[in-house]
């Protein structure tokens, strides 16, 4: 974890930002709960346990800054709630998600499934793709087995 915090600190410094104690507390929560897709409120409640003096607005600002700097990805699974996902170290693209419409679980697909599609979009439409997001909505294996 300390290695990733140090890399994030360097990334922030390269963009003329500091890793303040409030930002570090937020990053630590995201690292500790990396498998979860936390809302800003979820992050706030977990940060508050570590640093009670931090306010919700500070957490929101921190998450937005981290999103702008591509350290964190802001995602929405169609339920109206923005969630935050720490970008995998060295990842050039956002990863994909499988969202179960019955139990609400979210699985991640780290493999880039759209490389060929990106090349086609760039070649046929002359559109320079910077990133993409793919979310599949369906029924997970566990829910299928229950039925």
Automatic annotation (TrEMBL):
Its cofactor is Zn(2+); Mn(2+); Fe(2+). GO terms for biological process: negative regulation of DNA-templated transcription; regulation of secondary metabolite biosynthetic process. Fe cation binds at residues 115, 132. PANTHER family: FERRIC UPTAKE REGULATION PROTEIN, ZINC UPTAKE REGULATION PROTEIN. Binds 1 zinc ion per subunit. GO terms for molecular function: DNA-binding transcription factor activity; transcription cis-regulatory region binding; zinc ion binding. Gene3D superfamilies: 3.30.1490.190, Winged helix-like DNA-binding domain superfamily/Winged helix DNA-binding domain. InterPro entries: FUR, Fur_C, WH-like_DNA-bd_sf, WH_DNA-bd_sf. Zn(2+) binds at residues 100, 103, 140, 143. This is Transcriptional regulator. Belongs to the Fur family. It comes from Pelagirhabdus alkalitolerans. Keywords: DNA-binding, Iron, Metal-binding, Repressor, Transcription, Transcription regulation, Zinc.
